[in-house]
Amino acid sequence: MEKLVIKGGVPLKGTIRISGAKNAALPILMASILLEDPTVFTNVPNLKDIRTTIKLLEILGCPATFTDGVVRTRPCEPKPEAPYDLVKTMRASVLCLGPLLARLGYAKVAYPGGCAIGARPVNLHLAALEQMGVTFDLDSGYIIGKVDKLRGAHIVFDKITVGGTENLLMAAALAEGETVLENSAREPEVVDLANFLIACGAKIEGHGTNVIRIQGVQRLHGCEYPIMPDRIEAGTFMVAAAITRGDLLLENCPVEALDAVISKLREMGVHVSREEGGLRVRHTGDLRSVDITTQPYPGFPTDMQAQFMALMCVAEGAGMVEETIFENRFMHVLELVRMGADVRLVGRTARIKGGRALTGAPVMASDLRASASLVLAGLAASGETHVQRIYHLDRGYERIEEKLNPVGARIERMQETEE
């Protein structure tokens, strides 16, 4: 098992290029099940979850190749079963459910469990698909869905669901008639999926709002499509500039998708400006703590709260982070405390007293974004930080040390030794 060893205390200065967004690429790759022509996807990040998705597509009878950020798919006659061995490793595998039902009228997908940050049930997906005519059974840990032909429906989600919106977008693209999705997710990654489907011939309106209308079509053709840049990777590197008192230019940065993050950074005293070539983020003075409440887009993203908590630990004053999306997303708190942070948990709220000098320590990552927060804390800390279980980190960041070391970080990837 690998770990990162970080020697902190160095301001980061230079340019970093932002990779394609994993959370956009996963549903878009799943959507290739719907297509009857070859398709080329560019700006695809080289991540474990991407490789898992390609493996799943191959098992489903839809072969794909991945080379130098480009995925090429071929038209296929899909098979209906997504096995447990793959679904258990990547929750987003459930996004094959809608496309399989649209193409085959039948799908057998292993039921995804919860994860370290909390349960994310798929009941909203199933209830919505039932309104389109699907009947479901749960047998031996598998969701089995059957339908003669998907029919358009007026669906109101009980709760905003990104995955549910994505599954229904893909299913409705080939359904009979019109489907209306109310209380739908507005995340940029959902918009990217809709834009891809439109490029393939789908008829979709309202994506990016809470009401999406889809007119079903007979078939979807192939295209060449670039995956949007990763707003969470960009946000993480923005915090890296601030927490190290550095100055970074982020190329290929999805600025419009980062309004909430940029607003909080400016409130904390960080200088953020659009410049030729990208977004510049630099530390210009004392950092001030803030209060943050995570919300569905366009609110402050839950995927950035751990990184901001690390930043608030070194900012002046007291701040608060309220997590409203996932019930168990504070597992990084105890690790930050090991590094000298003053953080107290009260239910789903973390209270942070800033102005503390962080010191290096051995810490353990519990999930993807917690991993990022520990790397950021290590960059700001004195001494040496060992971040263990970085397989979480590698699910969402392309070898993060290879992007941070050229701008001044001192990070080494090492094998953990057996005690």
Automatic annotation (TrEMBL):
Amino acids binding phosphoenolpyruvate: K22, N23
A Pfam family reported for this protein in Swiss-Prot or TrEMBL: EPSP_synthase
An example Gene Ontology biological process: cell wall organization
Keywords from the UniProt entry: Cell cycle, Cell division, Cell shape, Cell wall biogenesis/degradation, Cytoplasm, Peptidoglycan synthesis, Pyruvate, Transferase
Active-site residues, record numbering mapped to chain: C115 (proton donor)
Presence of keyword Cytoplasm: yes
Residue numbers of 2-(S-cysteinyl)pyruvic acid O-phosphothioketal PTMs: C115
UniProt cross-references to CDD domains, sorted A to Z: UdpNAET (cd01555)
Localization of this protein: Cytoplasm
Main location (coarse class): cytoplasm
Catalytic activity: phosphoenolpyruvate + UDP-N-acetyl-alpha-D-glucosamine = UDP-N-acetyl-3-O-(1-carboxyvinyl)-alpha-D-glucosamine + phosphate
Pathway per the UniProt entry: Cell wall biogenesis; peptidoglycan biosynthesis
EC number: 2.5.1.7
Family label: Belongs to the EPSP synthase family. MurA subfamily.
Name under which the protein is recorded: UDP-N-acetylglucosamine 1-carboxyvinyltransferase
